[in-house]
Structures are given as C-alpha cells and as structure tokens.
Amino acid sequence: MMARLRKADPVLLGLWISLFVVAILWIAPFVFITLTAFKTRPDLVRTGSFGLPTTLAWQNFSNAWDRANLATTALNSTVIALTKVPIGIFISSLAAYALTRMRFRGRHLLFLVIAIGTLIPIQVALAPLFRLILSMGLLNKYLGILLPYIAFGVPYQVFILRGFFRSLPRELDEAAQMDGASHFVIYWRIILPLATPALAALFILDFVATWNEFPIALVILQRQEAWTVPLSLQAFQGQFGNNYTEMNAAIVMAILPVIIVYLIFQRYFVSGLVAGAVKG
Q1: pLDDT digits (tens, 9 = 90+) for 54-83
Q2: Predicted TM-score (pTM) of this structure
Q3: Which end of the chain is more exposed for a tag (fewer CB within 10 A), N or C?
C-alpha cells in the first residue's frame, strides 16, 4: 500500500502543478482588467499592465457607468437573460424527458437532428436571421432577440439533459405510473427535482452565454436604447483611440452579475456537469 502511494505522489504533484499553471493563466486577465480599472491614463502608461495603481481612480467607474449607459444596458441584459434562460431550460427539459422517458417512433432520428443543431455556427446564420427578424418587424425588440437565443440554446441543453435523464432509473417512472401518474406529473414531481444539479449547472452556463453574447445582439439590436452590456462596450472605442481604463471599469461592473449567479448555484455546478456524463 505504501509503495503504491509513493508511486502516485509524482503524478499527483504533476496534476497539482498543472492545475496551478492553468489557474494562473485564467486569473491573469482578470487581474489585468481589475488593476487597469483603478488607474488613470498616465498611471497606466507609467506602471504598465500589471503594475499597481499609484492612486485609486474611482471616477473610472462612475464615468464608465454613464458613458456605457449601463443603467439601461444592464437592465436590458438582465431582462433578456432572466427571460431566456428559464424558458429555454424548460423547453429543453421537456424535450429531453420525451426523448428519454417516452417511447415513440423516430425519437433517435429526432435527437440526431437536435444534436446536429449544436454544430451550426452562429456566424453562418446571421444574414438569414437578420432578414427573418426584419420581416417579422422584431428588430430592436426583446422578442426579436429572445427567439434566436432560445433556438440556438435549446439543442445544446437537450444534449446535456438527455444524458442526465438517462442516468435516472426507469423504476421511478413505472412506480409512478402504477399510481396513475401522467407523464407530466412524473416529469414535474419526480424527474425535475432529481435533475436539480444538472438544471443549476445549465442555468449558470446559459446565463453566462446569454449575458456575454455579442454577434446576434449586434445584428438584431441596432438602437442604443436596446443595446445589451457587451454592445455598450463599443462606447469606449473611438476613431482615434480607446479609453482602456474606463472600458476595464465597465468590464468589471459587467461581470459582477455573472459572479453573483455563479456563487448562488456553485454547489450544484460540478455535480451537475459530471452527472450528465454518467450515461451516454
């Protein structure tokens, strides 16, 4: 036993070193953004990217709030994310339940079509998507951005939830059906409570993806009052230069909602991601 532990030690040490290096690579950009957000322009030139600010330029945050109109754009992003994410997860969970717990002809082919939907790049669909939304009169409207967001998010979510639902024992369904429960009752009262870790993990991933989405929003939301937070960062780019200090202050404020959502659901995050890989 002791010999085995000694053999595993170098491997374990190597894994920890690798994780530490990866963590540093991930944290470095956030450190740069935060430090830059507290610097004045002359301070940024003097101290460089990772130097500590000589004075804390708190005015960067108030200036960035006004210049990016974050009061409006953050509200738009919040409304869109908190509408799209629950609706998308609800539709996806219904589809995943049907594909895994109900018997009907063509369900495997249907899942294949849904899986192919995860492979379609958003950039390929931007031109036809714009024409479609324009013909429907939904440019610069919440519904105009929600429909494509849900359409592009559902295939990925179905793919994840299907794997999790398949890991749940069918004996639960059979016992409930013997008591006269319908499929919706089984879905709502049995499957969904058991799927809480997977749903929470998907909520975090989908919220982050929706909050940070740029290409579709750039095409559909063309008026400034309809912009989301990523689009508002364009306000810091001018023809003759960029205001990096205020832009980084805006980025710091923009990522706070994402951090809050993650902290709320973090205990479910890892278990939910792992659970979906139990069965294919």
Answers
A1: 888 999 999 999 988 999 999 999 999 999
A2: 0.86
A3: N
